[in-house]
Design brief:
With about 400 residues, the protein is of the alpha/beta class. Helices cover about 40% and strands about 15% of the residues. Helix 1 packs antiparallel against helix 7 and helix 7 crosses helix 10. The longest helix has about 40 residues. The protein is globular. The protein starts with a strand and ends in a 6-residue tail after the last helix.
Length: about 400
């Protein structure tokens, strides 16, 4: 998928940063335009236009529930994936305060989960962080060992947002269930792209990650899961999420999620083959490169590699000049110039890293061109830094 390159190189730029945000899916665009006209009224009121908006909202909820394999009354729309995470984590802790104030998280969770954990600690709670192996995966036995009688909630992402490694959610969920501890899953990167393993108690996802509009998140709280809002009570969204519902956004988000699910059987293997090409070719073409993350048990669209002797920001700028939009470092904190907490936890190279994440419809010719220009780009930057490599 290409768009006009703002850097003025004279050719279209290949967009390889779908893990940050996916371009709007055609199904979302069509649904959004229709819902802007039909779903503008307050769905909580009783007059005709409001009832029409309520029908659209309920339809979106049912469609999203079907795509996620849950009940419609377990799905709530939020203003972002981050808000969904915060509500799930802090609400899950508050709902089980009598059980204890201990929280378990993996070391490679998204920053939104870790920030919620920090807030919990500031309020007197306790957090145990479970480490990962060099592929970025937790050991289910180590995760089980972190659970205690006073553990109120455990958190484990379905797949890592920086390196694509799939986590053993089903195994960890079984362990949590045996211990009587609810498991929260951050499914932002996998929803609409890969199957989400069963057994969890709550889940968060973000519409713009699967081609829905920005500003729409999804919070799922399974029945019989203890949860209490950490925010002042509001009558909206089943008293789970405060504020006026974004009906057009919810409709578009659900339409995109359903469309991505329908496309996944064909598109996921296609993208995975392109990622395999990058994983195989980059170490052959560029000296002193480490490709990170699990090569097999991974998301279909994402790969990260680290180049020694090159600053990640400089490499991103050079690749942008050459017509490629990619990302580097921590997906939400790259502008701080801090090393990625994910790569640090994995014990791999934390600098000079490039994350390539392909959107739906990615062109194989763009991948080939990327592999053609990358070696010279890295070599030029190394020479400018006074480093010579074979």
């Amino acid at each position: 998928m290409a768009h006009r390159n703002a850097s003025g190189t004279g050719f279209d730029a290949a967009y390889f940063d779908a893990a940050s945000t996916e371009p709007l899916h055609p199904a979302a665009r069509e649904a959004l335009l229709g819902a802007l006209d039909a779903g503008w009224a307050d769905p909580a009121r009783l007059y005709g236009a409001a009832r029409g908006a309520r029908v659209l909202l309920d339809g979106a909820r049912a469609q999203a529930a079907g795509a996620l394999g849950v009940r419609a009354d377990e799905v709530f729309f939020t203003t972002s994936g981050t808000q969904a995470v915060h509500l799930a984590v802090l609400g899950g802790l508050r709902g089980r305060r009598r059980a204890g104030r201990h929280l378990v998280v993996s070391a490679v969770e998204h920053s939104s989960v870790l920030h919620a954990a920090e807030a919990h600690e500031r309020e007197g709670g306790e957090v145990t962080t479970v480490g990962v192996d060099r592929q970025g995966r937790v050991d289910p036995e180590a995760f089980a060992a972190a659970l205690r009688p006073d553990t109120a909630l455990a958190c484990l992402q379905s797949a890592n947002h920086e390196v694509g490694t799939l986590q053993p959610v089903e195994e960890v969920a079984a362990t949590c269930r045996a211990a009587g501890v609810p498991l929260f899953v951050d499914a932002a990167q996998s929803a609409g792209r890969a199957e989400i393993p069963p057994g969890w108690s709550s889940l968060a996802a973000s519409a713009h990650k699967w081609g829905g509009p920005p500003g729409v998140g999804v919070l799922v709280i399974r029945k019989n899961t203890r949860w209490r809002s950490p925010l002042p009570e509001d009558e909206r969204e089943g008293r789970r999420v405060p504020g006026f519902e974004n009906v057009p956004g919810a409709v578009a988000a659900a339409a995109a999620l359903a469309a991505r699910r329908a496309e996944a059987a064909a598109e996921a293997p296609r993208l995975s083959a392109l990622i395999d090409r990058i994983r195989d070719r980059v170490p052959r073409l560029v000296p002193d490169v480490e490709v990170v993350g699990d090569p097999v048990r991974r998301l279909p669209h994402l790969v990260t590699f680290s180049c020694l002797y090159v600053a990640g920001e400089a490499l991103l700028t050079e690749l942008d000049r050459l017509g490629f939009a990619v990302s580097s470092g921590s997906s939400c904190t790259a502008d701080t110039l801090r090393p990625s907490h994910v790569l640090e936890a994995m014990g791999v190279i934390t600098h000079g890293n490039v994350r390539v994440s392909l959107p739906r419809g990615a062109d194989p010719a763009d991948v080939d061109r990327f592999l053609t220009v990358l070696p010279d780009a890295v070599a030029r930057l190394r020479r400018s830094a006074g480093v010579s490599t074979p």
